[in-house]
């Protein structure tokens, strides 16, 4: 995704992310997935690199996922694109008025987000969808810079416990007033994070909202329903809209 030239920090950040080779295990794995491919996508040219963030640079809502999907974002080059999780996410964002279309099939398909910025705690596809703590820490500076650069930010939606923990670490390290003990993740969990003596002068109080990740493990079993998911976005729009 090309970020508007009016937001040079986000543009630079996405360029750095795409070129990143910090984690040898992830560099090897993302390339292996792109080389071997899934049979259904054998004709596709896989992205096979770190996946940049996507959305509206003036967003008031930040969406944080875990990591790119092996045959979704690692194939298409856009977060939550080309797989079942993405179908759920973009469908919900469209219903909430945050996406121009209910589906995302490829990085250049014309889809746009309004008032939302989509990112992940880890930018490369990890084996078994499980990044190591060291890999999460290697990616953390990217997320910190995004939070600083999103000047209008009001709400954050964390998709899953990994994203919840990751963004809380980022906010704490930025000097925000993260409650202690650490707020527990849950679907619909909500906590106000004070801007405090933040190292980002423009950072205001933020509302962090938890949601189960729209993975097939959650959606196929009914742990996450469309009604539950839509309620999260209705709340995010109410806080950050």
User: CATH homologous superfamily?
Assistant: Uracil-DNA glycosylase-like domain
Structural class: alpha/beta
Unreliable spans: none
Q: If you consult CATH, what is the topology?
A: Uracil-DNA Glycosylase, subunit E
Write down the CATH class.
Alpha Beta
Fraction of residues in H or I helices? 25-40%
Q: Per CATH, which architecture? A: 3-Layer(aba) Sandwich
Number of strands: 6
* Shape label: globular
**Helix and strand string, N-terminal first?**
HHEEHHEHEHEEHH
- Our Rg estimate from Cα atoms comes to 17 Å
Number of domains: 1
N- to C-terminal distance: 23 Å
Mean pLDDT: 94
Oligomer: single chain
Q: Strand order across the biggest sheet?
A: 1-3-2-4-6-5
Question: Can you characterise this structure?
Answer:
The protein has 241 residues and is an alpha/beta fold. It has one domain (8-240): Uracil-DNA glycosylase-like domain (Uracil-DNA Glycosylase, subunit E, 3-Layer(aba) Sandwich). The protein is 37% helix and 11% strand. It has eight helices and six strands; from the N terminus they run H-H-E-E-H-H-E-H-E-H-E-E-H-H. It has helices at residues 8-18, 24-36, 73-76, 84-95, 133-149, 161-173, 216-219, 226-240, and strands at 54-55, 61-65, 116-120, 155-159, 190-193, 206-211. Strands 1-3-2-4-6-5 form a six-stranded mixed beta sheet, sandwiched between helices. Helix 1 (8-18) packs antiparallel against helix 5 (133-149), helix 4 packs across helix 8 (226-240) and helix 5 crosses helix 6 (161-173). The protein is globular and about 50 Å long. The chain starts with 7 loop residues before the first helix and ends with a helix.
């Amino acid at each position: 995704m090309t970020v508007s030239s009016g937001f040079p920090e986000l543009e630079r950040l996405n360029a750095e992310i795409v070129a990143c080779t910090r984690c040898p295990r992830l560099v090897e794995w993302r390339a292996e997935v792109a080389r071997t491919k899934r049979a259904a996508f054998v004709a596709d040219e896989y992205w096979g690199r770190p996946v940049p963030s996507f959305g509206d640079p003036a967003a008031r809502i930040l969406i944080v996922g875990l990591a790119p999907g092996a045959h979704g974002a690692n194939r298409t080059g856009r977060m939550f694109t080309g797989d079942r999780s993405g179908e759920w996410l973009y469908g919900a964002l469209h219903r909430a008025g945050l996406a121009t279309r209910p589906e995302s099939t490829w990085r250049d398909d014309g889809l746009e987000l309004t008032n939302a910025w989509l990112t992940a705690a880890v930018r490369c596809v990890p084996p078994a969808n499980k990044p190591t703590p060291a890999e999460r820490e290697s990616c953390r500076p990217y997320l910190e810079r995004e939070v600083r650069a999103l000047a209008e930010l009001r709400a954050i939606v964390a998709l899953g416990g990994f994203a919840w923990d990751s963004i809380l670490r980022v906010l704490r390290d930025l000097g925000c007033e993260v409650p202690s003990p650490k707020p527990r993740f849950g679907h619909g969990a909500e906590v106000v994070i004070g801007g405090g003596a933040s190292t980002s002068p423009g950072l205001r109080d933020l509302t962090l909202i938890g949601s189960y990740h729209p993975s097939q493990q959650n959606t196929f079993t009914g742990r996450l329903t469309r009604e539950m998911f839509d309620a999260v976005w209705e709340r995010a729009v109410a806080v950050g809209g």
